[in-house]
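FORM 7B - TANDEM STRUCTURE REPORT

SECTION 1: FIRST PROTEIN
SEQUENCE AND TOKENS:
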Amino acid sequence: MVVLDDKLWFPNPDEALEDGLLAIGGDLSSERLLLAYRSGIFPWYNDDIPLWWHPNPRFVLFPQELLVSKSMKQVIAKNTFDFKINSSFKDVISNCKNINRKEQDGTWINNSVIDAYSKLHNLGLAHSAEAWQDGKLVGGLYGIKLGNIFFGESMFSHKSNASKFAFIKYAEELVNEGVVLIDCQIYTEHLESLGARMILREEFMKVLNTNI
């Protein structure tokens, strides 16, 4: 595992440890983040230290493989939620920071993360997909879009099915924009139910390199 300094670089993804950890340290400048995503690398934080990951296999969703259950089709048909894109980015990432997650002890999203991704949002590269109900933000997700790849970062839900609704609607929008792969990074049962699956690093990088 490599310890990064101020120089703008990352090691070869094949050097990642078995759990996917590739490097530690560095910063969350827009330049470093964009280099990371273009290299298939994503950050998590641990005790205020950036950790950089490139797991193998990789959990992804090919948008044409999106699965929408009968119950979710009913939710969508009933207009239970309103769908918006980029109307409240900072609120989405703040909710992702504060939501309680059964599978996690705390959150990796700190103020440095919020500031870094807000800068990318201002550059038109970070986006939020949102579920609204009665004028209130009740679910959503955010991530980075580069070329024809969307790198999902985190999602939250305050109402049942709200985050699924936002994900489904945004996946359909991304298809219209020509996106060929949604990077889900790490396995969750929630996203598996929507059609996400594991692929090997070699396949992931091939798709990445031909679509950014």
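SECTION 2: SECOND PROTEIN
SEQUENCE AND TOKENS:
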Amino acid sequence: MAITDWPAAERPREKLLQLGAASLSDAELLAIFLRTGVRGKSAVDLARELLARCGSLSALFALKRAELEDLRGLGDAKFSQLQAVLEMARRALAETLRAGDALSSPAAVRDFLRLTLATREHEVFLAVLLDAQNRVLLCEELFRGTLTQTSVYPREVVKCALARNAAAVIFAHNHPSGVAEPSHADQVLTQSLKQALALVDIKVLDHFIVAGAAALSFAERGLL
């Protein structure tokens, strides 16, 4: 049965307009993005099938172009649309952070870092540089490593923060393994960076580890 034959209250688009986007399931949201299904399947059926094959929305978003093309009902056009949606979300969150105190919107910080790092295949270390009012000056990717390790040099981090006249910094890196727990090396590195930056009166406010949908905060864990 086509979605147009469903009762109006059950159609994803009408449901969104009436109840809001938060009321929709992952499959219903994806169906609105897909717009159409394939022969014998509605957009919702196709969305459910894609989510079942990928396991989650984040796993679907992380697919490379060639991988997406292997899925029936998707191709270059949908890949382009999907990437555009993700980039708009990142930019909107970045604008939110720049407009106000980053510490007053921890959820926005988390969401931005998850969108930025969750799908990276290799470990990436970045710094969110803040001014004296904790407004975001810049989000800078500082180092990129292998699947398991990144070499981070405190001197380079200090130089970057001073060059932007930062008053504080939030660090973040991803764990491609999917485990958000901090290693001993992560904790040692954080303390080394904190001590190096303290010498030039720059505060380390937090360090996040992003792994899939999870974003662990060192500050919340009492590791700072």
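SECTION 3: OBSERVATIONS ON SECOND PROTEIN
The beta strands are 124-130, 136-144, 168-174, 203-211, 214-217.
The chain is about 45% helix and 15% strand.

SECTION 4: SIGNATURE
Preparer initials: ____
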